[in-house]
Design a protein that fits this description.
Strand content of chain A: 25-35%
Number of helices of chain B: 12
Radius of gyration of chain A: 17 Å
Shape of chain A: globular
Order of helices and strands of chain B: HHEHEHHEHHEHHHHH
Structural class of chain A: alpha/beta
Shape of chain B: rod-shaped
Strand content of chain B: 5-15%
Largest sheet of chain A: 6 strands, mixed
Number of strands of chain A: 10
CATH superfamily of chain A: P-loop containing nucleotide triphosphate hydrolases
CATH class of chain A: Alpha Beta
Distance between the termini of chain B: 30 Å
Organism (chain A): Candidatus Magasanikbacteria bacterium CG10_big_fil_rev_8_21_14_0_10_40_10
Number of domains of chain B: 2
GO biological process, one term (chain A): cell division
Largest sheet of chain B: 4 strands, antiparallel
CATH topology of chain A: Rossmann fold
Largest interface: A-B, 26 and 21 residues
Low-confidence stretches of chain A: none
Oligomer: heterodimer
Protein name (chain A): Cell division ATP-binding protein FtsE
Strand order of the largest sheet of chain B: 2-3-1-4
Mean pLDDT of chain B: 83
InterPro entries (chain A): AAA+_ATPase (IPR003593), ABC_transporter-like_ATP-bd (IPR003439), ABC_transporter-like_CS (IPR017871), ABC_transpr_LolD-like (IPR015854), P-loop_NTPase (IPR027417)
Structural class of chain B: alpha+beta
GO molecular function, one term (chain A): ATP binding
Distance between the termini of chain A: 27 Å
Number of strands of chain B: 4
Chain lengths: ~230, ~325
């Protein structure tokens, strides 16, 4: 579960806060869409959850741990428990799909035997088994995003944060990626989908949190894209 | 608990091996930048070694001159053997004196004749004299050139001065002072140039490493994204710094030994002693090697540390 309490994030005092008094509770296994126009604080919220930024005020609990108080050396361990995918995929261009996924496990010091076991499993989940030896430039946008999701799943995270994962994709690929996220959610992983794709949000019929000017404008159990 | 720690150590070891693997991978991938880094480091080390060698040769030159220095006391022809023996004993008792050699009046005359054997007029003039015009000569060597002043002062006794006709030292003193001044200047210039080279090298190395790290910025951000620790991200650059250090110091010493071997043939002509630059570097290789390796390692580690600071900011 994720509990965000009274979180405010101010980057500079010359500008209004990126986030203001955010209170949000996300239960384990939920599929939550965070929606809002550009500059409403969606990405800031993601950065706070993966400890890339620290809030100016407030606390963020993930499980039993307040991540606003963890040391810098503990951040990598947190990131191994939270899978993250971005709009720009962030794959290593000189590594194959298999190597990109392996890389996530290699940096965590996982044994080679475990890497050999896990990588084919996650590639199968995202439907990329046949493309394991392909390089990112040989893949379509959708396939690249699926490879990024496979990498995010390598550590079997309890939470998967997807920041605009369909931003660079066409309708068919968007649908494929969302279906994969739904499948991962069915396995019990909490999904936090940050998007401004109206069709996707409306099609999902899951919880929708709408951000506006750095504040939560609405939070509906089965919501729609309202903006 | 033990199993958990064992697992952590095993993971650390795997991570360490992967860090080494990534370091070699990075060097290979940025081979031109790696080559440039080593090249600049070798240039810097060579300039330091050249300055060091100049200092060593200059000191050796001073040493050679110092060894040739002595002071000669020329006695009047009427000085008796007893008087000369008294002075001999007196000087040998002085702590600064290492050697006293006495030439009798006859030996001095024979030496003079030998030196001027081709000058008939001089030899004929000597033959016309009924007596030996030379008195005995005393050649004194001291531990240090600075001690000669003390010896001269010690000899400033009226009893001795009345039988001393002349003494020769002034010219040597001037040449030693000149050489010491030159060495002092060489050391100052050398230190200045070394600091200048170190600053220039630091700036070039810092920028070379920064360019290298910037080209891998995306990869570093991905490493952070997938949960790599700062140590895991920084590690390959540290290993690269160690590799660059070993390679550059080793290459520099190969060049230094080749150059020293070539110079030795010329130096053996200049210095009568068995001085060899190769032998000097051989006997000081551990000191010089570790000193330069530590300096280069510090330079590369600090450069990469500073260049990576922004990338590693959480």
């Amino acid at each position: 579960m994720i509990r965000i309490s009274e979180v405010t994030k101010i980057y500079t005092h010359k500008a209004p806060p990126a986030l203001r008094n955010i209170n949000l509770f996300i239960d384990a296994g939920e599929f939550v869409s965070i929606v809002g126009q550009s500059g409403t604080g969606k990405t800031t919220l993601v950065k706070l959850i993966i400890a890339e930024e620290k809030p100016t005020r407030g606390t963020i609990d993930i499980g039993d741990c307040d991540i606003t108080k963890i040391s810098a050396s503990a951040v990598p361990f947190l990131r191994r428990q939270i899978g993250v995918v971005f709009q720009d995929f962030r794959l290593l261009p000189k590594k194959t799909v298999h190597e990109n996924v392996s890389f996530a496990l290699e940096v965590a010091g996982e044994k080679q035997s475990r890497i050999r076991k896990v990588v084919p499993q996650v590639l199968e989940v995202v439907g990329l088994s046949a493309k394991a030896t392909s390089y990112p430039y040989q893949l379509s946008g959708g396939e690249q995003q699926r490879a990024a999701i496979a990498r995010a799943l390598a550590h079997a995270p309890k939470i998967l944060v997807a920041d605009e994962p369909t931003g660079n994709l066409d309708t068919i690929n968007t649908h494929e990626v969302i279906e994969i996220l739904k499948k991962i959610n069915e396995f019990g992983t909490t999904i936090l989908l940050v998007t401004h794709n109206r069709e996707t949000v409306n099609h999902l019929r899951r919880r929708v949190v709408t951000l506006q000017d750095g504040e939560i404008a609405s939070d509906e159990k089965v919501g729609k894209y309202k903006l | 608990m033990m199993k958990k720690w064992g697992n952590i150590n095993y993971k650390n070891m795997i991570s360490f091996l992967r860090i080494i693997k990534f370091a070699f991978f990075d060097i290979g991938r940025n081979i031109s930048l790696s080559f440039m880094t080593v090249f600049i480091l070798v240039l810097m080390l060579l300039s330091v070694n050249v300055l060091w060698s100049i200092d060593v040769i200059a000191k050796q030159a001073v040493g050679s001159v110092k060894k040739q220095i002595d002071i000669s006391f020329y006695f009047i022809p009427t000085a008796t053997q007893t008087e000369v023996d008294d002075i001999d004993k007196y000087l040998k008792a002085q702590p600064e004196v290492t050697e006293v050699k006495v030439l009798s009046a006859t030996q001095v005359l024979d030496n003079f004749k030998a030196r001027h054997k081709d000058e008939k007029e001089t030899i004929n003039a000597l033959g016309e004299l009924s007596e030996n015009p030379f008195g005995p000569t005393m050649i004194v060597r001291a531990k240090d050139p600075n001690d000669y002043k003390k010896i001269i002062q010690a000899m400033n006794v009226p009893e001795y001065q009345k039988i001393i006709e002349s003494q020769s030292f002034d010219q040597h003193e001037a040449s030693i002072e000149k050489l010491n001044t030159i060495i002092g200047r060489i050391e100052k210039i050398g230190l200045g140039l070394t600091i200048l080279f170190a600053i220039i090298s630091f700036l070039i190395i810092f920028n070379t490493i920064r360019v290298s790290i910037n080209t891998q910025r995306a990869e570093i951000s991905i490493k952070r994204l997938v949960g790599a620790s700062n140590w895991f991200i920084r590690g390959p650059y540290l290993i690269e710094a160690i590799i660059f250090t070993i390679v550059s110091v080793a290459l520099t010493f190969v060049i230094v030994f080749v150059a020293a071997g070539w110079l030795d043939s010329y130096l053996s002509v200049i210095f009568a002693s068995n001085f060899s630059l190769t032998n000097y570097f051989k006997s000081n290789i551990f000191f010089l090697g570790s000193l330069q390796a530590i300096a280069v390692l510090l330079l590369t580690v600090v450069s990469s540390g500073l260049a990576m600071r922004r990338q590693l900011k959480v």
